[in-house]
Amino acid sequence: MAGEDTVERLRRWENSGATWEVLARGADGIVIALLSCDAGEEMDRLASADRELLDYVGDRSRSDE
Predict the structure, then answer these.
(1) Which of 12, 25, 46, 65 is positioned for an S-S bond with 32, CB 3.0–4.6 A?
(2) What is the pTM of this model?
């Protein structure tokens, strides 16, 4: 998935009222859990090493930081 696509996917997730949480961050990229807006249940995962996504997430570990 291209960088802008991953950032847009994460933004759409946030705009729908849901949250996300970084599960892993390393030299191979980042793994993000996409959580439901009601119970915080993991609904999907996003894994990428795209620079745009890494820049967007920055040093946050959750979307609500």
Answers:
(1) 46
(2) 0.89
